[in-house]
Amino acid sequence: NVFDYIRDHLGYRIELQKLNMPAKLHASTENPLKLELTNRGFAPIFGNHPVYYVLINHAGKVTEFPVEANPQDWQPFSPSDSTYTPLLHTIETVIPLSDDFPKGTYQLGLWMPDGGKDLKYNARYAIR
């Protein structure tokens, strides 16, 4: 019913659409990443939330790569669009890996912590 729809779309609902990246990341070279997402909610993200790609190794060590993106700009749709067509937002960056970056298998993540120094590493304040 309509109440379920409203409940499921309150606030922001960030949804991955597509990720383009090399099959393997290589040290001492540029590794381009392009992520496309939509916001299926009714509102954009509020507050200061920097965006990072992170690589997580098998031991849980995290390496952060800051990205030039502002989640506050991720509107669900154009305000003048009467059809409410979801907007596609793109995050493009290059992950530079140094020559001495440890080889191995990594997980790739998108991390949007709180912008405050004291809350950056507090998961309760990060975008999930």
Task: Provide structural commentary.
The chain has 128 residues and is mainly β. Helix content is 6%, strand content 33%. It has one helix and six strands. It has one helix spanning 2-9; strands at residues 14-20, 30-39, 51-56, 62-67, 89-96, 107-111. The strands form two sheets. It has a three-stranded antiparallel beta sheet, with no helix packed on it. Strand 3 (51-56) and strand 4 form a beta hairpin. The protein is globular and about 55 Å long. 6% of the residues are buried.
Strand content: 25-35%
**What profile does the largest beta sheet have?**
3 strands, antiparallel
Radius of gyration: 17 Å
Q: Which percent bin holds the helix content? A: under 10%
End-to-end Cα distance = 26 Å
Sum this structure up briefly.
This protein is mainly beta. 6% of the residues lie in helices and 33% in strands.
Key structural traits:
6 strands, 6% helix, mainly beta, globular, 128 residues, single chain, 1 helix, 3-stranded antiparallel sheet
How are the SSEs placed, and which strands pair?
Layout: H1 2-9, E1 14-20, E2 30-39, E3 51-56, E4 62-67, E5 89-96, E6 107-111
Antiparallel strand pairs: 1-2, 2-5, 3-4, 3-6
